[in-house]
Amino acid sequence: MSKPMIEACGIDKTFTLRRDGRLVEHRALKTVSADLHEGEILGIVGESGSGKTTLSRIMIGIDTASKGEILFHGDRVATRREWRDLRRHVQYVFQDPFTALCPTMRIGKALAEPLAIHGIGSREERPARVARVLEMVGLHPDMAGRLPSQLSGGQRQRVNLARALMSEPKVLICDEIVSGLDVSVQAQVLALLLDLQKRLGLSLIFISHDLRVIRYLCDRVLVMYLGEIVEQGRTDEVFAAPKHDYTRRLLAAIPDRDRPAHHSPIDEALK
Amino acid sequence: MTAMRQALLDVAELSVAFPGRNGPIRAVDGVSFRLEPGESLVIAGESGSGKSMLCRALMNIQPGAASVTATRMDWQGRALGALSPRDWRALRGGQMAMIFQDPAAALNPLLSVGRQIMDVVNAHRACSRAQARSRAIEVLGLAGLPEPEARLASYPSQLSGGMRQRVAIALALAAAPKLIIADEATTNLDVSIQAQIVALLKRLQRELGLGLIFVTHDLDLAAEVGGRLMVMYAGQPVETGPVQTVLKDPCHPYTRGLLRSAPTLHSSRETPLQPIPGQTPKPGAVGAGAPFRSRCPVSVEGVCDVRRAPWSEAGPGHRVACNRFALDGRGGLP
Questions:
Q1: Which residues is A203 bridged to in the sheet?
Q2: Which pLDDT belongs to residue B285?
Q3: CB B177 within 8 A of CB B203
Q4: Rounded mean pLDDT, B76-94
Q5: Total-model pTM
Q6: Does A104 map to a domain?
Q7: Who wins on pLDDT, B105 or B252?
Q8: Residue B310 pLDDT more than 50?
Q9: Which tens digit of pLDDT belongs to each residue from B117-150?
Q10: B289-302, pLDDT tens digit by residue?
């Protein structure tokens, strides 16, 4: 197995919330450790509030841990310079393709922006690079002149992916990026992700509440529940023989057309 | 002909059209079905398939610009087209009730749960405050809320998403309707809550003899709900039959494409998903031919682009609207 690229060691995260006028501490992550290996697709699955987004945000430094540390290629990330170095190699793809793009900025400009921020390439080289990346995600280079409102949901999600790929990252964090898409379009985006991962040798953290998508896409899976990782392992093994009671319950709740009649979670719940 | 029980809803050739620059745009085009008491009908389709607009037309809450036409639209033998606004108000919420995708938007944030349910009870039957209150407690219990009496004073913001959807179900049950229309009612919920809510709807259907129209984009969930399935594409129904039959032996290329592109609990990368190429046509772009023709792997040149497919029998109670199927009886399968 390849060596870990990003490691999270003993991460704790506490948010302070105001509830009924009182301040209460909410422990979103409870001493969580996880790692991402080079070239793998790591799935994080769990229900809302389980801490999957918080963990992934802390792993790439867009949120800070209350306790614990992050290692990048085996070295502790501590200084601002080290964080900036990590972040250059990691890009986040957001869930909602409608709010992630500025409605008045043309696609080409939105895609060139990360290059300007990181100071990559000259002004003259950028349009060619935008065209190349658009083709990479299966869009016509003419798309650069369009506005987000002229694109369908699936096309917007491709533009989102393209923007994340502009700075040639090593790691992509995909946070529920196919949840809002129709299944026929979702399958197109999943095929594209697999293709990009293989061609560019990317490591992927794929966050989803849909176990069916996780099962299909991921090499390894972390199952989170109330701020803890309750189970992790190779996806096929976890799905074939779940060890934790929560994983078993989660799997049993997934609708499944192939399940024999009278074995559905719904029939169980009816008893 | 065998004597049929009186249907709750009997609909033939229902269409919903909006005025467009080049003639009317049909959001729903030619939907027919019968629903008897205690039966369930699952309507499945992707965004733009017209499934939500169909539900709205059934409840007569379609947008003002829409015009609804049908050759038949009967509620328990009564033509819905002849109803006055006053009759509609009694029917809607009283006899047929709807549960929406977003319970936060369906509930009034400023009123307590009990007040909202009692308002519905009072709107549909003459009863005292105490009677309305006890009915509210009863339906909250039916909807599976723990400690229903204590919940009366709660506000929607104090409840979780799953609890809010249970309150929305209680609200729908308040006036003892005969039909419940659930429009993507579990889509925003976590899977374990989704399983509970579907189980609840099935139990209510069985115990109270309700008719259920369940709208979803998830064919696996359709299988769990059971009953009859109608698959819609671009406003048109393309295949209908018993849920298990349609999913085991899909005859329309769109139904097959949908099943092949959706991952299941058993799929893995070794057998790649097969996405349907392209995207759903824009409203009004379908024209005269078969709606799926631009993405269809088995479309027939010279037929699918000019002719809308006739219905063919694919099996007992299983019908498909596909030109290819009408020609070869297989729908292009080897």
A1: A171
A2: 80
A3: no
A4: 93
A5: 0.89
A6: no
A7: B252
A8: yes
A9: 999 999 998 999 999 999 999 999 999 888 999 9
A10: 899 999 999 999 99
Whether residue A56 is contained in a domain is answered as: yes
Which residues of chain A, if any, have pLDDT below 70?
Answer: 1-2, 260-271
Q: What pLDDT sits at residue A266?
A: 58
Q: Return residues 92-151 of B near A (CB < 8 Å).
A: none
CA distance B18 to A41: 46
Q: Write the secondary structure of chain B as one string of H (helix), E (strand) and C (coil).
A: CCCCCCCCEEEEEEEEEECCCCCCEEEEEEEEEEECCCCEEEEECCCCCCHHHHHHHHHCCCCCCCEEECCEEEECCEEHHHCCHHHHHHHECCCEEEECCCHHHHCCCCCCHHHHHHHHHHHHCCCCHHHHHHHHHHHHHHCCCCCHHHHCCCCHHHCCHHHHHHHHHHHHHCCCCCEEEEECCCCCCCHHHHHHHHHHHHHHHHHHCCEEEEEECCHHHHHHHCCEEEEEECCEEEEEEEHHHHHHCCCCHHHHHHHHHCCCCCCCCCCCCCCCCCCCCCCCCCCCCCCCHHHCCCCCCCCCCCCCCCEEEEECCEEEECHHHHHHCCCCCC
Q: CA distances (Å), B265 to each of A85, A213, A228, A266, in order?
A: 38, 8, 23, 16
What is the residue range of A209's domain? 1-89+172-178+204-271
- Digit-coded pLDDT (tens) for B39-81: 999 999 988 899 999 999 999 999 999 999 999 999 999 999 8
Chain B interface test: which of A182, A219, A237, A263 (most B C-beta within 10 Å): A182
In a domain, A73, yes or no: yes
How many independent structural domains does chain A possess? 1
Q: Report d(CA B251, CA B264) in Å as an integer.
A: 20
**C-alpha triplet A28, A172, A83: angle, nearest 5°:** 70
Whichever domain contains A21, its CATH number is: 3.40.50.300
Rounded to the nearest integer, the mean pLDDT of chain B is: 92
Which single residue is written with the structure tokens 């029917």? Answer: B91
| Run of H or E residues at A208 | strand A203-208
Dist. CA B207–CA B209, nearest whole Å: 6
Asked if B26 and B17 touch (Cβ cutoff 8 Å), the reply is: yes
Quick one: pLDDT at residue B1? 44
Q: Are B264 and A257 inside 8 Å of each other by CB?
A: yes
How many Å apart are CA B230 and CA B216, to the nearest integer? 11
In this prediction, residue A86 carries a pLDDT of 87
Cβ within 8 Å, pair B275-A269: no
Is A24 within a domain?
A: yes
Supply the pLDDT for residue B323: 94
- Contact list, A48 vs chain B (CB under 8 Å): 161, 190
Angstroms from B115 CA to nearest CA on chain A: 22
ipTM of the complex: 0.83
Task: Provide the 3-class DSSP secondary structure of residue A221.
Answer: strand
**Residue in B225, B261, B266 nearest the CB of A184:** B261
Cβ pairs bridging A and B (under 8 Å): 122
